[in-house]
Design brief:
The longest helix is centred in the middle third of the chain and has 36 residues. Helix 7 crosses helix 11 and helix 8 runs antiparallel to helix 9. The chain has one domain: MFS general substrate transporter like domains (Growth Hormone, Chain: A, Up-down Bundle), CATH 1.20.1250.20. It is mostly helical. Keywords: Membrane, Transmembrane, Transmembrane helix, Transport.
Length: 483
């Protein structure tokens, strides 16, 4: 299988679950009478990918027992992740009444965790297989085509099925679709050194996978119970205005990084913080870029802001305008898919021909226009044409910005630490947006839907102010750092 075809498939695997714990879940909660502030809190489930750097080094350093020998390190993790995705989605289907929001949150977090783990493994593999910008362009485009095709298929299909057969059927249908690529991945050629003992390796992998899935569920339940207990003790509830707390929390990473940067910049090649398997890959980012790292991280935090915030409240807005789940599903079908793929294709083509700063600027502008399209939609008479136009603008901008952004992040990565560093950079890029998304319900109550979407688009466009500096940044020349 060619690299583009492989990453089309992997993008499909990662894209199917995403809407099921974000946009589709928001509509499901809306239909069950959950308030807008609580729906905003559920957007914090999408914070989990932001913290993938916490376990990404494990995927670089270790293989899944059995699966690693049978399929190789990267594919072993991908296959385990697919098993986790399907099991979590089935659990969400069986608890689709949302009688207990804590249980709903548990399965949504697990679905997000396994989706993120799949992306970490696939991104590391992509950077290893295609280390240059010219090679990355078509592979990233193929990956995002698969990803966005799956997102649209899941979002559109789930809503149409839910409108006719209920939410349980909707989640079971998407769980079945998520399993479809599994036979293709498992029957691809295995690792050369897996010729001996394949049956034993496969059995060992299945047993280890079952144990890992159960352990992940138990750990998530325990952590969730502790967090809910702390939130209750702190008086956090459906009417809590979290905006100020979120903004203060979002500043902490930047303050912490500024404090440790001088020590990192002076660290010699044999310093423990640079050689550490746990933190060495992340320290390397700061060592190579120095204080410019703060500029890079501020830029990437703003760049996808509009898309993340729009994802949280766009469907509740559309539902409030009187559109049915089927109408929303149709708009999220062919219209969203075509416009998104055009955006991705254009972005993948431009990164191979235009200067980086110009492609990033165009992506930011397209993303902002996509957000502002929802303001326009809110002031039109309800009808399919205006819904299609707004959806197309949103998805085109999302696709274009996403393609150029993935290539930009990939070029920041040191090839020695592909999985961990890409996980850190892509995760941090969504930390501030997803923190603010959790307060989106409070924001909407304060400034309305119009103010919310005007602001979200303006924040994405504001990232272009960093481009004159971003375009001139170069990493520090490597020293004689030991491997």
């Amino acid at each position: 299988m060619g690299l583009s075809a492989l990453y089309l498939l992997l993008g499909f695997c990662a894209g199917l679950p995403f809407y099921m714990f974000s946009t589709v879940l928001a509509l499901r909660l809306t239909q069950h009478g959950v308030g807008i502030v609580m729906i905003g809190f559920f957007a914090w489930v999408t914070l989990l990918p932001t913290f993938k750097f916490l376990w990404a080094p494990l995927l670089d350093r270790y293989s899944v027992p059995g699966f690693g020998r049978f399929w190789g390190k990267r594919r072993g993790w991908i296959i385990l992740s697919q098993l986790g995705i399907v099991s979590a989605m089935v659990a969400m289907a069986l608890t689709s009444s949302d009688a207990s929001l804590a249980v709903t949150a548990l399965w949504a977090v697990l679905l997000a965790f396994w989706t993120t783990t799949l992306e970490v493994a696939a991104d590391a593999w992509r950077i290893e297989l295609a280390p240059t910008e010219q090679e990355q362009g078509p592979i990233v485009a193929a990956n995002l085509w698969g990803y966005r095709t799956a997102m649209v298929a899941a979002g559109s299909g789930a809503l149409i099925v839910a409108d006719s057969s209920g939410w349980t059927a909707a989640y079971l249908v998407i769980a079945a679709a998520a399993f479809l690529p599994f036979p293709i991945l498992v029957t691809m050629r295995g690792e050369p050194d897996a010729s001996a003992g394949r049956t034993t390796a496969l059995i060992q992998g299945l047993v280890a996978s079952a144990a890992i899935l159960l352990a992940a569920a138990a750990a998530t339940a325990l952590v969730g119970w502790l967090l809910l207990d702390l939130a209750t003790s702190a008086g956090i509830g459906p009417k809590t205005d979290a905006r100020l707390a979120v903004l203060l929390l979002a500043m902490l990473p930047f303050v912490a990084m500024a404090l440790v940067l001088p020590k990192i910049r002076r660290a010699p090649p044999d310093a423990p913080i640079r050689r550490s398997a746990a933190i060495g890959p992340y320290v390397d980012v700061f060592w190579r870029y120095g204080y410019a790292t703060l500029v890079i991280l501020a830029f990437v935090s703003l760049y996808r802001m509009g898309d993340v915030l729009a994802l949280t409240l766009s469907k509740p807005l559309v539902a409030s305008l009187g559109y049915t789940l089927t109408q929303i599903g149709i708009a999220d079908g062919a219209v969203a898919l075509l416009s998104s793929m055009i955006g991705v294709a254009l972005g993948g083509w431009l990164v191979t021909r235009w200067p980086q700063a110009w492609t990033l600027a165009l992506g930011a502008l397209a993303a902002a226009i996509g957000n502002w399209a929802f303001v326009w939609l809110a002031h039109q008479a309800a009808g399919p044409v205006v819904l299609y136009i707004a959806t197309a603008l949103d998805q085109f901008g999302n696709g274009l910005a996403g393609a150029v952004f993935v290539v930009y992040l990939s070029m920041l990565v040191n090839p020695r630490h592909p999985g961990a560093q890409y996980a850190f950079l892509s995760g941090f890029a969504f930390l501030l947006p997803r923190l603010l998304a959790g307060a989106s319900g409070s924001m909407q109550q304060a400034i309305g839907y119009d103010g919310f979407f005007v602001l979200s688009g303006a924040l994405s466009l504001a990232s272009v102010l960093f481009l004159p500096v971003i375009g001139r940044l170069r990493p520090r020349a490597p020293d004689d750092e030991a491997v």
